[in-house]
Every structure is written in C-alpha cells, then in structure tokens.
Specification:
- The chain has about 120 residues and is α+β, with helices and mostly antiparallel strands.
- It has two domains: about 15-65, no CATH class; about 75-115.
- It is about 30% helix and about 20% strand.
- The chain has five helices and four strands, in the order H-H-H-H-E-E-E-E-H.
- It has helices spanning about 15, 25-30, 40, 50-65, 105-115; strands spanning about 75, 80-85, 90-95, 100-105.
- The protein has a four-stranded antiparallel beta sheet, with helices on one face.
- Strand 2 and strand 3 form a beta hairpin.
- The protein is elongated.
C-alpha cells in the first residue's frame, strides 16, 4: 500500500486509507466499461490498474442489461433504426435510420417508441 496521495477522483487513495488488501484488477473490467485502454488513463499511482474499476464493474454490467445491443435493428415510430451507440451514464441511445439520419434519445423514450411502433403486417 502507498503511504498516501490523492487519486484522479480527488479522494485519498483507496490503498492508503481503507483497502486492506490489493487484489488483481483485470483489463477485462476496463473493456466491459468501454474505457480507453490507454495505460496512462486506467492506471493508478502505483502503476497497476485502478482499484475502482473493480468496484464500478457490477454497476456497468447491470446497467448495460437495460440497453439494446449496438448493431441491433429496432422498429420505432421513425421506421427501422439500428443502435449505433449507448451511453450508460447519460442513459441515452444513438440510433441510425435506414436513410442514415442519426439521433440520440433517452433510453426510456426509445423503449416507449419501440413499444408504440406499428407492427408490420404478417
């Protein structure tokens, strides 16, 4: 553990205040959170991956389940659209129409549009 310091978050380092044992942090945690894999951005003061990646991981994984996958085709009030990006923290989804028009909207609005979209005839 380090003797002291301040992390990127502005708080005292976890390893010097409350973290009793340093456990390995996997690069997969950063990938799951879609963080930049630049070591300078995801490494702590000790040079290892930041411990907080481990604590935030569950929240990201659970939140992601509420969102449609990127690449998924949806029928909305605007016709057929494809999910091109999701922003978990802002709770928004960016979709692209068949004509190439892009729009970003809150997840709840997208879910409502999908639920209310007319179904194609069988």
């Amino acid at each position: 553990a380090l003797l002291g310091g301040v992390g990127r978050c502005g708080r005292e380092l976890c390893c010097s205040t409350w973290l009793p044992e340093l456990k390995p942090v996997s690069l997969q945690l950063a990938k799951d959170q879609r963080l930049s894999l630049n070591p300078a951005q995801i490494s702590g003061c000790c040079g290892r991956l930041m411990c907080c990646l481990m604590y935030e991981h569950r929240t990201y994984v659970e939140s992601r389940r509420r969102f449609p996958r990127e690449g998924k085709s949806l029928r909305t009030a605007h016709g057929r659209e494809t999910v091109i990006a999701v922003d978990i923290l802002r709770e928004t989804v960016t979709v692209r129409s068949e004509s190439g028009e892009r729009r970003t909207l809150p997840l709840d609005d997208l879910k409502r549009e999908v639920a209310e979209a007319p179904r194609p005839p069988r």
